[in-house]
Fold:
Amino acid sequence: MQKIIENLLEKIGENPQREGLIKTPKRVSDAYEFLCSGYKMNADEILNQALFKTDNNEMVLVKDIDFFSLCEHHLLPFFGVVHIAYIPNGTVVGLSKLPRLVEVFSRRLQIQEQLCEQISSALFDILKPKGVAVTIQAQHMCMQMRGVQKVGSKTITSSLKGIFLSDERTRKEFYSLIK
Structure:
């Protein structure tokens, strides 16, 4: 990867041997390894290590989970917050596992719509709750730094499963709690 970055620097008209850029190929390589570390993570392993039996059947919500990801179309960052809720069906998951689940999928080349669906599907498939709701609000540098250059614009996506999809009251409660 370092050689590719060195070639990229040359292609954009830079001298990869100048003082400020000598270590850049290594730094960029290390950064991308971290930013794409989700490929080495497994949602099943993360969630299954913290499942607990419960009689609770009320909504569990963790909101404002910050995330950073890379747009798969431009390799530019997008970032924002994720809100995750579920209605238990005899099992809950440790609260810290929800932000970890976000990391699994956000630390991959991604589009926001897919990120939202992957988080929702993993939680629904592994936990088997009565329902799952995931909403993401994000800013995309591919829209702000280039292209239409609309600084401050936000994209909102959601993925609803089970009771959140079928029961308007439950869905409204979720949306009122994340405002």
The two ends are 42 Å apart (CA to CA). DSSP finds eight helices and seven strands in the chain. The chain has a mean pLDDT of 97.
